[in-house]
């Protein structure tokens, strides 16, 4: 089990935010307490589980109990406090953008370290960031939001590509992570403020 | 291939019941013969496939032909005999509760044996029990039942926790399995009789 | 990375067709450019990803960049040219049948080579062929077509069984592949022309 480094703390904050987003969607669909916790758990950890399955290691979500605990407690708290969570919409969006940046960047690096070539590692990194939201939407009977509108996955993908490029020129890992995650975060926030969307077919 | 022990027979009975439940849902959605068999197969074996993917072994569902054969034959028989299966609703509920108890308990033990720590092993054990039903509902276009009502997954989770606890104090495996599976079974039956449900958010 | 053999070229053609089919479904659901590419990618490569997860290797879709590139470019082109792609319906059906034949046969052989027994290898082979379409339909909020009508998966399954049988009698691999893929292709085309469907329950 890794010590409680700044990176791990940031990771756990990202997981808490994703769990709250999953739990909020589940409450809106009138799922019961178990359903809310389950959807919150998978919204928070589903992307990382996919990543670990693809790189052939036991998913960290099952191996390090702190991840599961943070996801479960946050989802349970959201079940109780969901009106408050809904009022915090802006805070949740900001933290979600931060979580996205962190997840795609660390996902890409873990895939590279497992020997996956750069293009594949970027796709796995992006799936780490959007996989939880995909599972959340599938479980609650929605076509995934990330496929329909807004610049979300594309912001994540840029983070993957930049961290892979910075790593290829042997920049130090903490610097690469900080730069690429910040880039993703800023792009995502600008996209929200300016209401940017990807085009749909004419 | 394991010899035909009492545990394997019980496992196969559980698989047959889950396959019948999946096939019944598929018939209700007017799927064709292939669809009914496919949904039955995944309802029966999807939970175990998830478990084996997470602990990084080739899924038993593909390795031991008896599992696939029982699932396919039961689903095909349900396709023909579905009015009879529907009349057996109470029998199916009882056998399903028994299958749940068995799957969560053996799933937890397999995860522990693969080196997954107790909390993660319990989550994997629960997924072994509810995973097939999740896949069945997703394939037939429903929000998973297990997330919406009734004490089902929670009964399974208690079975996981108890078998992990009994195993930690080095009780003999057959005794641990029998105790924890029975606990799950009884809790699930009482929940059905008393119409217990998990709470939904207010 | 494998050299550009005839088999690989055929594989890439199959992937392009599956990507076009996924992208067309995504355009019809009004997904944005990212969603169209993402669904196209998974429609083309989802079956192979499942296969590789089940036989415990890193998915080729992430390891060999040519697969991802062909899928992404085809999906992007379909986003632009979807009226043309729709007019090519018959061409797409023919190429799709060819892709199905190829994917199920190579999927079965890869599973056999990974030590999976014949029955399980056939199921994995079939999943390789139909998995992408399953994911495409789940992501676009549909009950999977393959479960509802037409002889599609069954044609694939016959290809799996024949290639496993031919391989068991030690026929040369290229001959086995050609025979079994052709059988699947012909059966699928006849099923389309004669409008064959699997039965539904009465």
From TrEMBL, chains A, B, C:
The chain crosses the membrane at residues 6-26, 33-50, 62-81, 93-112, 118-139, 151-169, 175-192. The keyword Cell division does not apply. It is a multi-pass membrane protein. It is found in: Cell membrane. Keywords: Cell membrane, Membrane, Transmembrane, Transmembrane helix. This is TRIC cation channel family protein. It comes from the Bacteria. Belongs to the UPF0126 family. Its main location: membrane. Residues 9-82, 94-166 form the Glycine transporter domain. It comes from Dactylosporangium darangshiense. InterPro entries: Gly_transporter. It holds the Pfam family Gly_transporter.
